[in-house]
Amino acid sequence: MSTDKPDRGQIQSRNEPFTARTATRICEETPSTENPYLSQACRYHGYELGELMRKRSFVDVLFLLLRGELPTPDQGRLFETLLIGLSNPGPRHAATRAAMNAGVGKTDPAHILPIALSVLGGNHLGGGEVTAAMAFLRRQRNKDPQVVATERLAACERPAEGDWRAAPGFGSRFGGIDPQPLSMAEQLQTLPGAGEALHWGSRFAEALKAEQGGWLLPAVAAVVFLDLGFHPRAGAGLFQIAAAPGLLAHGLELANQPRTAMPFPDDDHYFIEVAL
Amino acid sequence: MTSGSTLWDKRRGIIRSRKGGWVIGRGGYISGYSLLDDLVGKVTYFQSLILNITGELPSDSVGRWGEALYQCMSFPDSRIWCNQVGALGGTLRASSAAGITAGILASDSRMYGPGTISLVHGFLSKGLAEYADGKDASQTIRNWVGNKRKQVSIPGYGRPLATGDERVVAMERVSKELALVVGPCLRFAYTVEQHMQEIQGESMNLAAYGTAIMLDFGWTLPQIQQVYAIVVTSGVAACYSEAYDNPPESFLPLRCEDIEYRGHAPRPVPAAGEEGG
Fold this sequence. Notes:
Helix content of chain A: 40-55%
Number of domains of chain A: 2
Strand content of chain A: 5-15%
Helix content of chain B: 40-55%
Mean pLDDT of chain A: 95
Structural class of chain B: mainly alpha
Largest sheet of chain B: 3 strands, antiparallel
Low-confidence stretches of chain A: none
Order of helices and strands of chain A: EEEEEHHHHHHHEEHHEHHE
Oligomer: heterodimer
Order of helices and strands of chain B: HEEEEHHHHHHHEHHHHHE
Distance between the termini of chain A: 45 Å
Number of strands of chain B: 6
């Protein structure tokens, strides 16, 4: 193997053809006649903002912004039902606890949500896992879920301690089957907007049951997002938007309480396992 | 309760740390060192940072090398994506912590910055293993790219905006001054660079150079990512600072006409319950 450094030429600009103006298909702002920096009217995908405010729900507009069209009634119902289901990861979830820590730690309240959402972006039970689950489901959905489950169970590594995944969004939680996402998926399946991905995921989760595995929340989100036509790229952010109300509420609940309002393990419960 | 609950029950209400902590009345400890007695004023901040991540106190040379790497990523140019995020935070008067960390978060990118490290590491570590099995670098490059792609794109070779990477040249000088020995991963990285120069005209970028050396230090991928995580801080801080020092919303302001709308033509909003538009 050579140890010679190659002869490098001059540093030169690539002169990439950057656009002169950013383009968007989402939002059209009509400039004020008085001031070109101010807009006097605004349309989202062709719909005038004031008219959207009068006629449609926030959930419809969220769908519109990300998909480019308003949802059908069945899509809207499915989307809203999921968003309610995801609206609060609960006070034991690490993202919520991050919000609560920020709150009780007297962090600027403006930071509570970004802090919690950053934690919620992770690859374990977070937005990263939603995206991975969507990619997995897109690759596998033409195959028999029972067959895929058998293959994945045979291949997946089971750690000596801790949880396992047969696929992103499917596996064990605290060593067992998480009942909440299971019941959420069952409820969503009864809706007329439920689609192929949700049904495929249910059969896949069912096939993991004997091994104490099943639905995890990111996969429930993933299948519905796919059935609603969202790209995996949107999965993490949608999951974050959905959870934002609960994260913020838990953080704010502690923001005006004393710092003793959350446990701070005493020295008898904090062990430094290296010689001092 | 399942057998799997044992792990969680053992840790419930208890924190066990091999990193260290604060013993109230005695002081703070990092991996067995007293922070205030053994480290403060005696080793650099960067040595402490690496100690906190790896559990090993690195030499002064390694600490200075890490600091130089960070300096190389400190261009105060607000056109650069992460820096611009910092500037936008400054112009909207986000707090300094929010504006600067937003810029740092932006650098967690597939195109540049810390977000590229896993791909660079994957290529270099796989290639080094293949080299040990007798393959040469050109074969590793071919395997990585595959036969279908015409454009040869290898993580860690080439960079946005410009050809070549003057930061690598600066770091080579620093490494020489610090008498850091060229290890097997960096030698492999140079061999790949020779091939990339010949077939694509691309040279090694700072991420590949830094990752190769950190691999030669014996650090794992997570450790390398953690050391590199906030590498853009200085440049972002500069751009945040400059925007903050100017009137709000005066950083690169846009008129309505500066955004090109290419979307749907105006249309009426259907009432809720009707089919979507």
